[in-house]
Amino acid sequence: MADGDFRIFLSAVTSEFGAARDALAADLRARETLVRVQSDFRQESEANTTLKKLHDYICDCSAVVAIIGKRSGDYPPPAAAAPFNHMLPPGIAKASYTQWEFAFARHYKRRLSIYIANEEYVPDRLVSESDDLRLQQSFVAHIVKEQGLDRDYFSSEDRLCRLVLKEDWPAKRRSNLPDIQVEIDRLPFLADRQPQIWRICTSITRRMDSAPSSARELQPVTPSLFILPSWEEDAVDMFHWRLTDKDGPEYCEFDASRDSPNWVGKRLTWPTTSTPDTFQREFITANLPYVRTALRTARQRRRPICFRTLVAVSEIQQDFRRFVDAWIGSWPPILQQAAETPRGESQQSTAPPPIVGLLVFQYRSSTSRGWSFWKRRDVRIDRLCDLLKDVDRSAAVEVTALPPLTTVTFQNAGEWLESPDVLGHNLDRRVRSAIQQMFQNRRAGVPMEEFASTINAAQEYRERGHAQ
Questions:
Q1: How are the residues of the chain apportioned to helix, strand and coil, as percentages rounded to the nearest 5?
Q2: Which tops the pLDDT comparison, 136 or 30?
């Protein structure tokens, strides 16, 4: 946490309070308060478990707002909880992730605000099998009856937000740093990935629902192939993580309490010295062992597989469409060879797992200006996307050309506002309020151009007001 920053962590069970938590985060951010919520979480180099990441986030915050209801939420594995068990209150031997957030706040003596939903509150979703309602009752009793901690009660999202906003939160210190000018098409790569993930997950669940019921019905392994433009490799890594470890397992309704719900993921090598004519042979030679191992693992765990392959546009732009067709044509033979039973092993009797092949062609611009958080969109992207319009009709397997990442969601806007590059500039409450209003009643996000022009217009209005 930067020296002097006051940051609030919002703790809540997503299935019960996800919408209310996000609305509260938006209201706090509109008041220029630094907020940390679950949708902001990312992979952290120093946290090898989710619980360790929560621990570190709360250590980095000044206050925790605990939104508490009837549900416990998911529980961490015992091995992940073991290093922190000494932080649990006496008499409590087990805690869910959300209950651990409360325990961390008490242990580190963070400012703790407790809000408990009453009987009138309507949860976002149905209760999950992983929720331990009895243990949650004991947790609430510990807060209310045993400790007698100060608390408020609420019955709706609006009431919760009003109560929290009434608190005497410290005002954010004003900065004399320069204003920020947002240029159209120079927005963060943190764009809305949900439409792309949704289309991939739909293909996966369709294949899972139609899986054969007996060994006699087993069919050859066939993949669902997707082609996606991107700008930076770390954006691809985050997209792949969300697909295989976060959104994908949730969409497929894998039971997180039973075992690790994540898909099997593997990055395959693009043979950089190949030509369209030699690509298939070199691609299979380089990646066959990895595909065979992933198939075996996926059969054992009964999970889908996502193979991702990255290639720079500069390496294939001269024969772009021929290279794409060669990549598509490589999948039937490499999967056929990988699925063959090695000599001495028994024939596989389980159904083949659903397979996603993801081809990401990356754009790199050496002439890009501005902060590292932004990358100017390469003008070639539209032309090359046009070359993919009929790719699904020309292939023998299912191929989908996904749209570029070109819209911004409210969550992405929050991440953008919290980035170091943007925090180093002067965005006053009027600009943040304009961002919030822009996303009201908008489920699918806003175009990057609208996002940029709205911010610039709000700043110009502010500057005219100061001049008068």
A1: 45, 15, 40
A2: 136
